[in-house]
Design brief:
The complex is a heterodimer of chains A (427) and B (352). With 427 residues, chain A is an alpha+beta fold. Chain A is built from 12 helices and 10 strands. The two termini of chain A are 21 Å apart. In chain B, helix 2 packs parallel to helix 4, helix 3 packs parallel to helix 10 and helix 8 runs antiparallel to helix 10. Chain B contains 18 helices and 2 strands. Chains A and B meet through helix 4 and strand 10 of A and helix 1, helix 4, helix 5, helix 7 and helix 8 of B.
């Protein structure tokens, strides 16, 4: 199955690339004209059904039990015949969208795959429960107000907001999968070229956020959406915040435990963008290795223990100030020396040293030594990519650079225990 | 390789430009006509009162100044979008602050809406607040994330620290939390890190309540406040200021107008206090909390007890530069300055 998908990804990214770009441009222009007026619009010829080969390949896939999103993989044109779109419908109205199937759900929201009856495009509908006594959850307000201001090729696009008395629905662009799902479909780690392209996009998105002093604070594979051509977009800005003022005391209850940096685990509340870089480093390992970097811990001290066994226990010498952090209890720590990363994550042994070098700089215990997204993008790990990839405009996808495409994922022999794999039911 | 200072400076310019764009996109304030907000029966004094009250609430809830500034921005945008009846003004203002907190404050700090209402001592019901929340979000299309005057204070401050490190010891610009800021100079020992930005922030909070000043964009207001201080604190201020003015893309005519009004307004606040407050003020000794709404913050008079002659000269030199006036005799200026500054007899500086 993985082979088929990869094959399809390659075909789509290669042969169809230019046609696809044109379609997108046209669509974008149409979206703009929708926003300015809801008057009648030309039909979207570009949204017509795609060549059937890739589409049927995916449809032949058996539906997955946990997350059905891949089972009815369509494309922007899927709904055309069934739900003729109507330019008279308005944005902001629940009648304008039709939900097709449930993609996943968490404590506060359920995500559906849907189709816009305004223009026939597929969308992801994130339905948020509104508590009667607290009003709109702060996560939704943050997500909506931040995403309204953020336009970047590696940040998910928020199309619309539907706010009724009972529910609140955020309408996002539809993305075929997410990194968590993709990883579980390719156990044993991803193609190293693909890892490079995915990490590059993650860092591009992060650089953009960090240059605006915005911290994401919840990076994990499930929050990185992937399109069929391999475009990665950062999603779920519910915990994100702007940190325009230096030295603010921030919450240490951020970031899913496995991706939380040691300084925050130790109770540091004055963290900065290095927080997201640590999470990105963990995701880097996960893409290479096929398994989370520091998995399984259920509480903060176990998580710290996990990190110390790999990177060593910090001291006042290696990290001035660490002993002053609230949760630093050296007496509970068995002495531990830093290990070579390639002895912990064996995949690194097969790859050039620069991979390990970049990773080690992203996973520095001491936040001030951790590499910034900006510096990481300049690292020679990325030098094998065509240079124009570093000089793209904010809203330009890296796949616009000629020759940049995903490669086939080879099914690796090293299969992982299923318990290690991610199966979080999240969009 | 360029110096780390230059890289930091470039980074800050990117940040400033992004903030200016956000401000340009979303900044909107109601117009005043015949002492009232156009289209509503809210008078300027009612408005001013409500902003002061909002400041009190912000302090009561332990929200940070950015939250207050964002709340005021939300309120202003709403007042310029809808016709608001005075009886709803308080509820609109309160809800604006709640919304700003939901964006800006950590979950632990916000507390429940019910608790906030109880603490405020107001008679709103939670349902009223939530209804208002929906109205505001819909009217402003959920587009609440903007750059406020407080954000600009911090960006300008960081630009000063990174671009003019030689100023750090002399005017206590230092902020330990700014990455890349130079090591603390001797001047910093007396001033807690980041205090300067905190003082400017408080001045901004005052100015936001003044209906004549709310017509100015946050970036203009922040620059005016900083320039007024720079004039006093460093002989080198003009080059520093022109640099900031250029980066901030602020119209110089509007800026001059704003700066005059800020100066006048802050001075008027000082006069409304008991005169001896000026003399006992010592910036280094007063804890942060007490400073929050203390209008005697102006360093011009605060530092060293009272305006010193050297400061005064620089202050006026500054204005001459700004207006390209010819230099006049300094003695006259000092006299007029002293007349303007304080109705009190020139007491000697604080004894301690």
């Amino acid at each position: 199955m993985e082979g088929l998908l990869s094959c399809w990804v390659r075909i789509c990214c290669g042969e169809e690339e230019e046609e696809e770009e044109e379609e997108r441009k046209e669509e974008e222009i149409k979206m703009k004209s929708f926003k300015t007026s809801c008057s009648s619009l030309p039909l979207a010829e570009a949204d017509g059904p795609r060549p059937a080969f890739w589409f049927s390949t995916l449809q032949a896939r058996p539906p997955r039990q946990q997350r059905g999103r891949r089972s009815s993989e369509g494309g922007d044109g899927e709904g055309d015949g069934v739900f003729p779109w109507n330019p008279g419908l308005r944005f902001g109205s629940s009648h304008s969208y039709l939900s097709l199937e449930r993609l996943g759900g968490g404590a506060s929201a359920v995500v559906y795959k849907g189709v816009s009856r305004i223009n026939g495009r597929l969308v992801a509908l994130k339905e948020i429960r509104v508590k009667s006594e607290e009003g709109v959850p702060f996560t939704a307000i943050r997500e909506a107000s931040l995403l309204k201001a953020l336009k970047h090729a590696n940040i998910v696009v928020l199309h619309d907001i539907i706010h009724t008395r009972e529910t609140l629905t955020l309408v996002f662009e539809y993305m075929q999968t997410d990194l968590g799902q993709y990883l579980s479909e390719h156990p044993g780690g991803l193609n190293s070229h693909n890892v490079r392209l995915l990490l590059l996009q993650l860092l591009r998105g992060l650089l953009f956020l960090h240059s605006l002093k915005i911290l994401h604070r919840d990076l994990k594979p499930q929050n990185l959406l992937l399109s069929f051509r391999g475009e990665l977009k950062i999603a779920d800005f519910g915990l994100a915040r702007s940190q325009s003022v230096p030295g603010l005391v921030l919450s240490s209850q951020v970031v899913t435990l496995w991706y939380r940096p040691p300084d925050v685990l130790l109770g540091n509340t004055e963290y900065c963008s290095s927080l997201d870089v640590w999470s990105a480093g963990c995701i880097f390992v996960e893409m290479l290795q096929g398994a989370p970097a520091f998995p399984g811990a259920s509480d903060q001290s176990a998580q710290l223990q996990h990190i110390w066994t790999v990177l060593g226990v910090p001291s006042e010498l290696s990290w001035p100030g660490v002993t002053q952090l609230p949760h630093f209890h050296p007496e509970r720590l068995p002495p531990s020396r830093p290990k070579k990363l390639h002895n912990v994550w064996k995949r690194l042994q097969q790859l050039p040293g620069k991979t390990e070098d970049l990773l080690s700089q992203m996973l520095k215990l001491r936040p001030s030594e951790r590499i910034s997204a900006q510096e990481a993008l300049k690292h020679h790990y990325f030098h094998t990519l065509p240079p124009p990839i570093m000089h793209l405009g904010d809203t330009t996808s890296i796949f616009k650079v000629p020759g940049v495409r995903l490669e086939a994922e080879v099914r690796a022999g090293r299969k992982l225990r299923p318990s290690v794999l991610h199966s979080a039911p999240y969009w | 390789m360029k110096s780390p200072g230059a890289a930091e400076s470039r980074r800050l310019v990117v940040l400033l430009e992004a903030a200016l764009l956000r401000e340009a996109r979303l900044w909107k304030v109601p117009l005043f006509k015949n002492g009232c907000i156009q289209g509503a029966d809210v008078s300027s004094s009612q408005y001013q009162e409500i902003i002061f009250w909002l400041g009190e609430m912000n302090r009561l809830f332990h929200f940070c100044p950015e939250t207050f500034a964002l709340g005021v921005c939300v309120l202003n945008r709403l007042l310029s979008t809808v016709k608001a009846q005075p009886k709803y003004l308080k509820c609109i203002a309160f809800t604006s602050l709640v919304l700003a907190a939901k964006i800006n404050e950590e979950d632990e700090v916000i507390g429940s809406v019910q608790d906030l209402v109880v603490q405020s001592g107001c008679s709103f019901s939670t349902a009223e607040i939530l209804r208002m929340e929906r109205i505001i979000l819909d009217k402003l299309q959920w587009d609440l994330y903007t750059a406020t005057a407080v954000d600009f204070i911090h960006i300008f401050h960081a630009l000063l620290v990174s671009g003019h490190p030689h100023l750090v010891p002399s005017i206590g610009l230092g902020s330990a939390s700014d990455p890349g800021s130079p090591a603390a100079g001797p001047g910093l020992q007396k001033r807690p890190a980041g205090l300067q930005a905190a003082l400017w922030t408080r001045q901004v909070q005052h100015c936001m309540a003044c209906h004549q000043l709310w017509q100015f964009k946050g970036s203009t207001l922040a620059l005016a406040i900083i320039t007024l201080e720079l004039e006093v604190l460093t002989p080198d201020w003009f080059s520093v200021f022109t640099n900031l003015l250029k980066k901030a893309q602020v119209d110089s005519g509007e800026f001059i107008h704003c700066k005059e009004m800020v100066d006048e307004y802050l001075q008027s606040l000082e006069f409304s206090l008991p005169p001896n407050a000026v003399y006992i003020f010592n910036s280094a000794l007063i804890p942060d909390q007490q400073r929050a709404w203390n209008p005697t913050l102006r360093l011009r008079r605060g530092r060293g007890g009272f305006a010193q002659q050297g400061d005064t000269d620089e202050f006026y030199d500054g204005f001459r530069c700004l207006y390209s006036e010819e230099t006049t005799q300094q003695g006259n200026n000092v006299d007029s300055q002293q007349k303007n500054v304080s109705p009190c007899p020139p007491l000697h500086p604080a004894l301690n």
